[in-house]
Amino acid sequence: MDGVNRPVFSFVRDFEPAGAQQLCVDRHYLLAASHGVLRLEVDGTSWSLPPARAALIRAGVSIDVTIPQPVTTASVLFSTTFVSPPPSKLAVVDLTPLARALITECSRWDDEDEPLDDYALAMFRALAAATWALAEHPSPARMPTGRSMEVRRALALTTDRLADDVRFVDIAREVGLASRSLARRFEQELGMTWSAARRRLRVLRAIEQLAGTEHSVTQIALDVGYSSLSAFQSAFRDLIGQSPSEYRSGFARSAA
């Protein structure tokens, strides 16, 4: 990318599932999934990135990217001289219809050797203005990953068993701590109880299924561990601010 002279350019790519890989570029990076889901992690916090969202990453910031399912990404790279730095190192935002339309329009200029005319530059500047403003109010759908090996292991075990009737005491035993000690670690490192963490993990997994499958909302609720559809919808709305069906409709708008 060092050899690219254009101040801003876009590209669309398809990726197969892959484990965590580090990403760091020398430009401000707008990353969106037009199909499928990405998982991002930086500084002890993780996000799911389905088509209704985008990530704005400051130049020079290293993040871990995991691809749990096939994904198509639409990316825009902004020179540090073209725009001001984003308001934070990484902001995952819920895309507005305007931002989605601008990403689609800017994807026309994917040849990095082709000069940009005034219209193209105006579109890229409008996209930057729209997404930089969204980054002032990032999505709340994120998950702290914990600092200690025990908490991170407990979260991994919980994630693997979201659909099971797993008990906290069993998780604590598997990570080698008394349940009281692990509960204290959760409060100290995550700022939430294990039950609250499991509820959030279930919603985040549901977001991925809403984006990556055609399963019904009821089936997804069962898949992530809810026996009650109303309880699932309540937990989803509490975190996301929309019902699962409303949120899924945003993916269709993104693809349009």
Question: Explain this structure to me?
Answer:
The chain folds into 2 domains: 127 residues, Jelly Rolls (Sandwich); 110 residues, Arc Repressor Mutant, subunit A, CATH 1.10.10. The protein is built from 9 helices and 10 strands. The chain has a 5-stranded antiparallel β-sheet with strand order 1-8-3-6-9. A 5-stranded antiparallel β-sheet has the order 2-7-4-5-10. A hairpin with a 2-residue loop joins β4 and β5. α1 runs antiparallel to α2, α3 crosses α4 and α6 runs parallel beside α9. The chain is globular and about 60 Å long.
Cα(first) to Cα(last) distance is 30 Å
**Biggest sheet layout:** 5 strands, antiparallel
Instruction: Please give the CATH architecture of the largest domain.
Output: Sandwich
Strand content: 15-25%
List the domain count as a whole number. 2
Classified by CATH, the class of the largest domain is: Mainly Beta
- Number of helices, counting only DSSP H or I runs of 4 residues or more: 9
* Gross geometry: globular
- Can you count the beta strands? 10
Low-confidence stretches: none
In spatial order, strands of the major sheet run: 1-8-3-6-9
| Percent of residues in helices | 40-55%
Structural class: alpha+beta
**Residue-averaged pLDDT:** 91
Radius of gyration: 19 Å
Q: Which fold name is given in CATH as the topology of the largest domain?
A: Jelly Rolls
Question: What is the N-to-C order of secondary-structure elements (H for helix, E for strand)?
Answer: EEEEEEEEEHHEHHHHHHH
